[in-house]
Specification:
Elements lengths: L33 H10 L2 H23 L31 H37 L1 H16 L2 H8 L8 H10 L3 H14 L3 H8 L4 H9 L4 H24 L11 H7 L9 H28 L9 H12 L9
Helix pairs in contact: 1-12, 2-3, 2-12, 3-4, 3-6, 3-7, 3-10, 3-11, 3-12, 4-7, 8-9, 10-11, 10-12, 11-12
Length: about 325
């Protein structure tokens, strides 16, 4: 018995390219730059966008918030001591009658600036020391790595605590320099390892044979190739610096009076936190929001800069694949 085969349909004709009008030239499709692609992948991460929005709002609140209230972080309201949140004092007052909202916003300013500066300084030190150590090698590598190992085994928290009284009357920028000087060593070793791989590439050898100076090769050809890692490290170091500064200020080794940070605000009101909880919740809540927002931004940057990350891929493609796999098969059909 012969089986009748269904008629074979002619293949659908391929779409013809759009005709080019006379007197015009065809325009080649525009290539997406790496920066634009990174921004697009970052924008697909909702948690990263949420963290970025929270961080921007914290910066706006820190600098625009004091303009909305009549109280200053140094002024005292002698008619309201330890009063709760009200229309007069939005976040209540401290034991000395200081408006807690104005005090927390001032501390938020200082903590955010310190975290940002320490993140930039520590990443710059790690990039320079790690890249120069691996590029030159020899005695320069041995001396710099000996310095890295020495700083790694030294208790940085204890050293900063011991040195803080020496700079008690100095600017808070000295405290920033201390934090930055003790938080770059691990990243420096990572940069050194990556530089060992990059310095044998053809473009680095070509620049060397053309007589380009070593610092130019390092800053123009080697460090830009590890920019993604350095950007992520800056974000992580900034978050760690905010937490570290608050911890040191809590124990009295950080920002000194009359200036304040979130750590000093929390430390000054810890004894009364159990009976007057707003004295602790508002500044501690700001500190938690900073840590969460920076963590979300760091995860988003890691996914956006990693070409193999699946979390940053386009959502429509994933929906299409999921719909294709979940679609029920027709009777008699095979997948």
């Amino acid at each position: 018995m012969s089986v009748q085969q269904p008629p074979v349909a002619d293949p659908a004709p391929a779409p013809l390219p759009a005709p080019v009008e006379e007197g015009t030239t065809a325009v080649a499709p525009r290539r997406t730059s790496r920066a634009r692609l990174t921004v697009r992948r970052f924008a697909r991460n909702r948690l990263a966008l949420f963290g970025l929005a929270v961080l921007i709002l914290l910066f706006l609140a820190a600098y625009a918030g004091p303009l909305l209230t009549k109280w200053d972080y140094k002024s005292h309201d002698f008619l309201n001591f330890m009063s709760g949140p009200s229309g007069e004092h939005w976040w209540g007052t401290t034991q000395g009658g200081v408006d807690l909202f104005a005090l927390t916003m001032r501390g938020l300013q200082k903590s955010l600036v310190i975290g940002l500066l320490v993140g930039i300084i520590s990443t710059f030190l790690s990039a320079v020391v790690g890249a120069f150590s691996a590029y030159f090698g020899g005695w320069a590598d041995r001396v710099l790595m000996w310095l890295v190992d020495l700083l790694l085994v030294m208790p940085s928290f204890l050293i900063i605590a011991v040195m803080s009284p020496m700079f008690r009357d100095s600017s808070w920028l000295v405290f920033v320099a201390l934090l930055g000087a003790f938080s770059w060593m691990i990243t420096g070793r990572v940069v050194r390892s990556m530089t060992f791989t990059l310095k044998d590439r053809e473009f680095v050898k070509a620049a060397k044979y053309m007589g380009v100076p070593a610092p130019v090769i390092i800053f123009r050809h080697i460090l830009p190739n590890m920019a993604s890692m350095l950007i992520i490290d800056t974000v992580i170091q900034a978050g760690a610096a905010v937490i570290g500064e608050s911890g040191l200020s809590y124990f009295g080794f950080g920002v000194q009076a009359p200036d304040v940070s979130l750590g000093t605000v929390i430390a000054d009101n810890t004894t009364n936190a159990s009976t007057y909880p707003w004295l602790f919740f508002f500044p501690a809540g700001c500190l938690v929001l900073i840590g969460l927002s920076i963590a979300f931004i760091g995860d988003g940057l890691r996914d956006a800069l990693d070409p193999n990350s699946t979390r940053a891929k386009a959502r429509p493609a994933r929906r299409k694949n999921r719909a294709a796999t979940s679609k029920p098969l027709k009777e008699g059909a095979t997948r």
